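Running this now, will post back.
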Amino acid sequence: MMGPFEMVVGIVLIVTVGQILRARYKTRGTQLRLADDPDAQRMRDEIKTLRDRVAVLERIATDKEHSLEREIELLRDR
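Update: finished.
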């Protein structure tokens, strides 16, 4: 049975992965054209940030030591 915290983490994870996949498929056909585009670099940076955040959320969800407060503070500092 899933608690409310796990549900929230799951929803955030699904939405984040969806955004990453959407961004990837949007830019797949235009990668050569966008190689020098500043927006393309911004999107790559944003995707990397999202991946890092998903990794933190996964670590929070599976953390047995319940260091939730510490991890949330790390996310706020970004």
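The longest helix spans residues 4-28. More later if anyone needs it.
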